[in-house]
Design goal:
Radius of gyration: 20 Å
Strand order of the largest sheet: 14-13-12-11-7-10-9-8-15
Number of helices: 11
Oligomer: single chain
Shape: globular
Order of helices and strands: EHEHEHEHEHEHEHHHEEEEEEEHHE
Largest sheet: 9 strands, mixed
Number of strands: 15
């Protein structure tokens, strides 16, 4: 197996997790980290090269650049890495706007390199098992979807840039909720035709939304509702996906397990036992990094492709328009 050499750009909470995940995968070796913070670089293991300017890292003979920066910095860093002929794995969301995402995709095509957005939820076992049951027809045709996430920013250490419009591009819907939008589209198996909803910053009072409600329509045959919330006080992390079909339903308790409800009753499946939240997140990170590295080795497009995951950003972008105007925004033909 050819060893793939990786450089990580950004060494905050997420960058540290990406390093831990890479170190658990055979044939993948992180050789350098870049961060403009001396304090962040002081936490980098001594066996790795460090740089204050990520452009110096791009001069190294590496295969992959793993971008873990604030969202607004993704596009410039990814384009520079692609121009240096490096494959790029960028943390979700891919960018703050679909215009930037398209620019990144054009740079990847021009460079002949792979661009991939990390979507850990696609690789969690509880979600993948539920998806398999849906594909096998165990709950019939999916007609209603409800998803939700409630999290206290304290569990992430409350990175300041999460609440900055200029750095994050949005609040709970974009920064963490893009995972939920992506998985709703995945389970629906089709693209939505409309989006509407509301946002508020009544909980934290910042410049980005800390709570929101999104409604998606899928050609009248399926509807989805997603609730997002950042909480001020300590609170259990909840992330529940409920799928109602013509023959039954499934409820996925992310980072816990799932329930299959049918005429036979309720069957409960527990995935995790005593793992910490970080250990659970690493399951998804290892999955996405392994998929990307395998795609690099095989010279193929990784799953899910960047065009598919970019749909979630387009939906979020349209949702912000809907929330601002109070109108239902049509999506048909735009995804």
């Amino acid at each position: 197996m050819n060893e793939l050499l990786v450089g990580i750009v950004g060494f905050g909470y997420t960058g540290r997790l990406h390093l831990a995940a890479c170190r658990q995968l055979p044939g993948v070796r992180v050789v350098a980290v870049a961060d403009n913070s001396a304090e962040a670089l002081s936490q980098v293991p001594s066996d790795l090269k460090t740089f204050r300017d990520y452009r110096d890292l791009l001069a190294l003979d590496i295969d992959i650049v793993n971008i873990c920066l604030p969202t607004a910095a993704h596009a410039a860093a990814a384009c520079n890495a692609l121009q240096a002929r490096k494959h790029v794995l960028v943390e979700k969301p891919i960018a703050t706007t679909t215009a930037d995402a398209r620019l990144m995709m054009e740079e990847a095509k021009e460079a002949g390199c792979l661009l991939y957005t990390g979507m850990t939820h696609r690789f969690y076992p509880e979600i993948r098992e539920a998806k398999k049951r849906v594909e096998e027809g165990q709950i019939g045709d999916v007609v209603l979807i409800r998803d939700s996430i409630f999290e206290s920013l304290g569990f992430l250490g409350g990175p300041a840039w999460y609440r900055s419009k200029a750095l994050a591009g949005g609040g709970t819907v974009l920064s963490s909720g893009v995972h939920l939008v992506d998985r709703v589209l995945w389970f629906a198996g089709r693209v939505p035709v409309s989006v509407s909803g509301f946002t508020s910053n009544a909980i934290l009072g910042g410049e980005v939304e800390d709570s929101a409600q999104m409604c998606l329509g899928f050609d009248g045959s399926c509807f989805a509702q997603i609730t997002f919330g950042w909480l001020r006080e300590s609170h259990p992390l909840l992330c529940d996906l409920e799928l109602t079909g013509t023959r039954g339903s499934l409820v996925v308790h992310t980072w816990q397990g799932y329930e299959h409800r049918s005429a036979r009753g309720v069957q409960q499946y527990t995935i995790y036992k005593s793992e910490s939240h970080q250990e659970k997140v690493l399951v998804g990170l290892r999955g996405e990094i392994l998929e990307f590295c395998t795609a690099v080795r095989e010279g193929r497009e990784p799953w899910p492709c960047v065009r598919e995951t970019n749909r979630a950003l387009r939906v979020v972008e349209a949702f912000y328009e809907a929330a601002q105007t109070g109108a239902v925004v049509a999506l048909k033909g735009t995804l």
